Amino acid sequence: MIPMVDLAAGHAAHQEAIEKAVSGVIRSGHFIGGPEVRAFEQEVAAFLGVPHAISCASGTDALHLGLLALGIGPGDEVITTPFTFFATIEAIVYVGARPVFVDIDPATLNLDVGQLADAVTERTRAVLPVHIFGQPVAMEELMVFADRHGLTVVEDCAQSFGARRGGRYTGSFGDVGAFSFFPTKNLGACGDGGLMVTGSAEVADRLRLLCNHGSPERNRHQRIGYNSRLDAIQAAILRIKLRHVEAANEARRQVARWYKAGLQGIAGIDLPQTPDGGDHVYHQYTVLVPEQTRQALAEKLSQAGISTAVHYATPAYRQPALAPDYQGLCLPVTESVTRRCLSLPIYPELRPEQVETIVGTILRSL
Ligand SMILES: *Cc1c(COP(=O)(O)O)cnc(C)c1O
Fold it and tell me: How far apart are CA 345 and CA 343, in angstroms?
């Protein structure tokens, strides 16, 4: 069997260090906040090259609190992509704003920056790009656009920890970068966790208030906030995994090169593209196949013991929770990609002979 991800394999090399760190936290009695959380925030800020990093309970919270801290609220429109995990959209709805969808670029599967202008109205306040599957959005171009129109930018980096553009990490371009440490993400905890990064000390202060009951000090509540904190056990584990995340991302890129060597130029399968120097971290390795072939190919792979997944089968605006408000919306590239996409197994420990097996099975099945 070849799974989509193998978290046990990912932890095996660090098992001892992780167990030691966890028992250290248990002995210390500091479970919420405390030295491990502070140290992780400092180390991850240094890694990403950002002035401020504030941990929280999940990637969804990081997006939600990021939008709140930037003052996005009822009546505002936030331009985003319909080809994402649904949490991106939920965060916009939580603050009372309206998601406005633009179509995606067929090469990168990211929001098409060239189409932003058509989506701007007098209510537009923010853009929420998602670095989907670990492929960085064209942030230089997007930031120029946002500055010109006076828009705030929140980056959804849930799938792109460690991805760069022009040497800069995703999350460091926008007003707030939101990260998830859900176990399967490129930097994953052994539970839920999230992070918000920002260049603004003022926004950082607001984020710290928001994730801890609006409380700057004990017994004082300056505003209505939330309980959204990274716990110390997860912080201790993340400190260990942060030291290995570059190597893990490089191992993912190596897997992608093996896939490319085996599948490039084969009719009926389009591989991930990394145009203009974007530094992809392959949270997923998602290919496009003809609509009529996808189901049969997934079944043949499954019969050979190879897992696949469809990310994402439905444009966000067609999800039952949103569909009534977006009747008639039909973004052609998104529609086509949701019918053609198929994600293949990818994780740092995937071995070359396993990739060979997957490639061989695909070639026989197409
Ligand atoms: C995982 C994910 C999230 C949500 O992160 P959680 O930590 O699970 O709340 C948001 N956006 C995208 C694109 C994701 O992949």
Answer: 7
Two tokens, residue 87: 């949490």
pLDDT band at 31 (very low <50, low <70, confident <90, very high): very high
The whole-number average pLDDT for the span 321-333 is 97
Ligand 1 atom nearest to CA at 60:
9
* Pair 105, 283: CB distance under 8 Å: no
pTM score, whole prediction: 0.98
Start-to-end CA span in the chain (Å): 20
pLDDT of residue 148: 98
Mind giving me the DSSP string for 30-66? --BSSHHHHHHHHHHHHHHT-SEEEEES-HHHHHHHH
Sign of the dihedral through C-alpha 55, 161, 46, 155: negative
Q: How far is the CA of 67 from the centre of ligand 1 (A)?
A: 15
Q: Is residue 274 very low, low, confident or very high in pLDDT (cuts 50, 70, 90)?
A: confident
Contact yes or no for 268/293 (Cβ under 8 A): yes
Q: Counting every residue, how long is the chain?
A: 366
Please name the amino acid found at residue 39: A
Ligand 1: residue whose CA is nearest its atom 1:
158
Q: How far apart are CA 226 and CA 56, in angstroms?
A: 10
Distance 116 CA to ligand 1 centre (A): 23
Percent of the chain with pLDDT over 70: 99
Compute the distance from residue 89 Cα to the ligand 1 centre, in Å.
10
In this prediction, residue 277 has a pLDDT band, given cuts at 50, 70 and 90, of low
DSSP-H helix ranges across the chain: 7-12, 15-28, 35-48, 59-69, 87-94, 116-119, 139-149, 201-210, 232-242, 245-263, 291-303, 332-340, 352-365
pLDDT for res 105: 97
Rounded CA separation 69/29 (Å): 31
Indicate the residue type of 25: V
